[in-house]
Amino acid sequence: MTEQTNTTYLITGAGSGFGKEVALRLAEQGHDVIAGVEIIAQVNVLRAEAKERGVDLRVEKLDVTDEGDRDKAAQWDVDVLLNNAGISEGGSSVDIPAANIRRQFEVNVFGPILLTQPIAKAMVAKGGGKIVFMSSVAGLTVDPFTGAYAGSKHAVEAFADALDQELSEYGITVATINPGPFLTGFNDTMFEAWKSWEDDPSTRLFDYEKLSFPHEQFDPEEVIEVTLDVLTGADTDYRHVLPAHTVDDIKSQVSAQWDRTLNDGKRAELVQTAYDISPYTPVTQDA
Fold first, then answer.
1. Contact call for residues 30 and 5 (beta carbons, < 8 A)
2. Which of 245, 222, 216 is nearest to 18 (CA)?
3. pLDDT of 158-196, one tens digit each?
4. For 46, 86, 113, 263, which has the most beta carbons within 10 A of its beta carbon?
5. Positive/negative CA dihedral, 256, 262, 266, 271
6. Which residues neighbour 7 within 8 Å (Cβ) at sequence distance 6 or greater?
7. Which residues are catalytic?
8. How many CB atoms neighbour CB 128 within 10 A?
9. What is the pTM (predicted TM-score) of this model?
């Protein structure tokens, strides 16, 4: 059973990527959608795009790390929350400056959870609701140079799991979306984060000009479609690893941790791939 058309959806991080397209398509379906964007400049840009597509979309500035923005959002009557806002800080765990690591967790973990708290309590008062987290396959597995990002998504997975258990008796459901490598630009710009580091480049262990995101990437349409189904109630699963055909591989990677031994002192395969691959490499043929 799908949600009623009078359901109000709040999508954070709707200024770009998955969030923007999900917000626009929900609005095209006739739903009441609040699209939260990080900076004020994105408000009119998204409003203009909504007008061009002929949809009624409410766009609000909502930086999840801003307490004032979160307090404002807490007053909205939200039935379904998609915690989609996020950033990706690429780089070795020994190189990323402290401020960048903290920012990674402020945006991906602390901001969304602090936003969720009052909205979830309002849902309890109403007798129900839905909370969805745009997590990542990186919340289940880890690649080199993604330690900070994957760490934040592992934390998201823990909060989502806890909330699902804690809020069940109050009529609130929780779900996660776990995209793998999709070609939105998000993954590739992760490997350009070093350009804004305030550090001494001579102390870096790696030369980041030579590294790129170490995976071929898929068309993002599958993530958008699955997210819409989860939000509207057509899909009732808790976790959604995408692309769907990679589920068995991800399960194998997670299970393999139980038999893992110390490394052999050689360069890891994905580290070498990061040197060899070009940015924005699409999947040549779906498996």
1. yes
2. 222
3. 999 999 999 999 999 999 999 999 999 999 999 999 999
4. 86
5. positive
6. 31, 32, 79, 80, 232
7. 149
8. 12
9. 0.95
